[in-house]
């Protein structure tokens, strides 16, 4: 009899409706805030001066450094200059109206980025 009662109980459990599951109302969350990125002060355009941050005879490391600076938001370009008869590849940042403006940019924005540079005529 006990077996029959246990069997009947098991049968009743398998036929019993599933317990109700509470479904939480979906909340609309605001989009995650994007990280703040400081944009370096933009140098003036159209000047005859730039700031050189790297100058090497081999072009490959210069191009790689310029790309890194561009990814950081700096207006970096690769330029060539002849120094003592040798072609030098340079990472130049910005275009300035004067050497003083280029120096100020190097001492301010570039220094905050951990870079050193010197003004050069374009």
Outline the structure in words.
This protein has 122 residues and is of the alpha+beta class. It is 34% helix and 25% strand. Strands 2-3-1-4 form a four-stranded antiparallel sheet, with helices on one face. Strand 2 and strand 3 (86-96) form a beta hairpin.
Could you give the count of β-strands?
Answer: 4
N-to-C order of helices and strands: HEHEEHE
Q: Largest sheet, described in full? A: 4 strands, antiparallel
Shape: globular
Helix content: 25-40%
Strand content is: 25-35%
Radius of gyration: 33 Å
What structural class do you assign from the helix and strand content? alpha+beta
Distance between the first and last residues' Cα: 103 Å
Strand order of the largest sheet: 2-3-1-4
How many individual helices?
3
Residue ranges: pLDDT <50 for 5 or more in a row?
A: 16-40
How much is the average pLDDT?
77
Quick structural summary:
By secondary structure, this protein is an alpha+beta fold. It has 3 helices and 4 strands, in the order αβαββαβ.
